[in-house]
């Protein structure tokens, strides 16, 4: 939850993009050419990944939604 609020955005779809420190959101293009994001924790481990978006604006809206809603969300761990 804290990672999302503190995360910078690293847009890997831009040539010569500036690398950000963790925690961070990474915006990238998948094999289908869709925009996706992943959230990486302070230790660099991925903790969230998005669906594919046809437009970068939709991807950025998804990131904003995670930032807004993560602080109030319940953490659910998978059963082993």
Task: Summarize the structure in words.
By secondary structure, this protein is of the alpha+beta class. The protein has one domain: YegP-like (Double Stranded RNA Binding Domain, 2-Layer Sandwich), CATH 3.30.160. It has two helices and four strands, in the order H-E-E-E-E-H. It has a four-stranded mixed sheet. The longest helix has 15 residues. The chain is globular. The two termini are 22 Å apart. The mean pLDDT is 92.
Can you summarize this structure?
The protein has 80 residues and is an alpha+beta fold.
Based on secondary structure, the structural category is alpha+beta
CATH topology, which one?
Double Stranded RNA Binding Domain
Coarse shape = globular
SSE order, one letter for each helix or strand? HEEEEH
> Which residue ranges are poorly predicted, with pLDDT under 50 across at least 5 consecutive positions?
none
| Arithmetic mean of pLDDT | 92
SSE diagram, text form:
Elements: H1 2-6, E1 8-11, E2 24-29, E3 35-40, E4 46-49, H2 56-70
Parallel strand pairs: 1-2
Antiparallel strand pairs: 2-3, 3-4
Attribute tags:
80 residues; alpha+beta; Double Stranded RNA Binding Domain; four-stranded mixed sheet; globular
């Amino acid at each position: 939850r804290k990672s999302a609020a503190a995360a910078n955005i690293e847009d890997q779809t831009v040539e010569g993009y500036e690398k950000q420190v963790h925690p961070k959101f990474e915006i990238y293009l998948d094999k289908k050419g869709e925009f996706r994001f992943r959230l990486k924790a302070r230790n660099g481990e991925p903790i969230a990944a998005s669906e594919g978006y046809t437009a970068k604006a939709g991807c950025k809206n998804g990131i904003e939604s995670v930032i807004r809603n993560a602080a109030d969300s319940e953490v659910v761990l998978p059963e082993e």
